[in-house]
Design brief:
- It is a single chain.
- With 331 residues, this protein is mainly alpha-helical.
- It has 15 helices and no strands.
- It is globular, with a radius of gyration of 19 Å.
């Protein structure tokens, strides 16, 4: 995953001209694109589970970013976008690649060694909530409102229900894995702030290529140092999973992301956060035999509620209905 996968919290820096644009409606095409993005990002948890049977976590991350670089570079050339020459921009790409790809992918894949793909996707769903809080704390034009705080409280309550009291009483590897996935969500959130401050003036596709290239430069020495030289003795299923993670769940996901952002806006794009777990849980149930505990479903409900509170549109719709006024809230 996503991904972006680009984090949803990065929506505004990736298209700064739309930061204060009015909300846009979701038409049929935008809805289908959202479904496609949710499928590839939700499918990334399933594909990672397959790949992790043969490939260690850091090497999975390496494959995911390395093979996406030539695909995105080809798209850049097709659009006639030139690569920057400023060392400052490339340094910003390197940091962005660490925060938005190398670190969160590695944490998620490490966590998925003991956490099911469906549960991992639910925990990763806190990204949008954490992103609103981090942006509110670090960006002066993104105030930390009561709505954002309320959404964060609901989301954290969902996390607490999922993880359970055992996190506070013991060092269960499963609990550590869940915390690692939450760490990935936090990294995505910080990446959104960094990108907005440092890369806001660049074309979105250039930012996507730059941070994937930066993460590849990071992961090559890290993966080799920790996991050793990557083996090519991988089954066909393993190779297909790795290539799909890279080409579909990373490169294609970025292209879908920017298309939806332009058509439907950042606020509507946030809806994909609720759709990703549905895809991941379904694939995990059908093909991996995963079963979610009742606490996971309750936790997901709280996280989804937190996202709704943070977004604000469901509450506005209810107020309009109670007031008997016209339905002006557009989705």
């Amino acid at each position: 995953m996503r991904r972006i996968r680009v984090a949803l919290t990065a929506a505004r820096w990736q298209c700064p001209a739309m930061t204060h644009a009015p909300r846009q409606a979701i038409d049929l095409t935008s809805g289908l694109l959202l479904l496609m993005l949710a499928t590839v990002w939700g499918g990334s948890f399933f594909l990672a589970a397959i790949a992790l049977r043969e490939v260690p976590p850091l090497t999975v991350t390496l494959h995911r970013v390395v093979w996406a670089v030539p695909v995105l570079y080809a798209v850049l050339r097709m659009h006639g976008i030139a690569l920057p020459r400023s060392p400052r921009v490339w340094l910003a790409f390197l940091v962005m690649g660490a925060l938005n790809n190398a670190l969160p992918f590695s944490l998620i894949f490490w966590g998925q060694q003991t956490v099911g793909s469906g549960l991992a996707s639910i925990l990763n769903g806190t990204t949008a909530i954490l992103g609103a809080v981090v942006a509110g704390a670090l960006l002066p034009d993104e105030p930390l409102t009561a709505r954002k705080i309320g959404g964060a409280v609901a989301g954290l309550a969902g996390v607490a229900v999922i993880i359970g009291p055992g996190t506070l009483t013991g060092l269960d590897p499963r609990n550590l894995a869940q915390l690692a996935i939450l760490g990935a969500a936090l990294s995505y959130s910080v990446a959104g702030v960094w990108g907005r401050r440092m890369l806001g003036g660049n074309p979105p596709l250039l930012n996507a290529f730059g941070m994937v290239a930066g993460s590849a430069l990071i992961m090559i020495p890290v993966a080799v140092a920790v996991d050793g030289v990557p083996s090519i003795r991988i089954s066909l299923a393993g190779w297909l999973s790795l290539l799909m993670l890279s080409v579909a769940c990373t490169a294609l996901a970025y292209l879908l992301y920017f298309r939806i952002l332009a058509r439907a806006g950042a606020a509507n794009l946030m809806l994909v956060t609720l759709m990703i777990p549905a895809v991941a849980v379904s694939l995990g149930h059908l093909f991996l035999g995963e079963r979610l505990a009742p606490s996971a479903w309750i936790g997901f409900g709280l996280i989804a509620s937190g996202l709704a509170i943070t977004d604000g549109r469901p509450a506005a719709w209810l107020r309009a209905r109670r007031a008997g006024g016209p339905h002006r809230q557009r989705f």
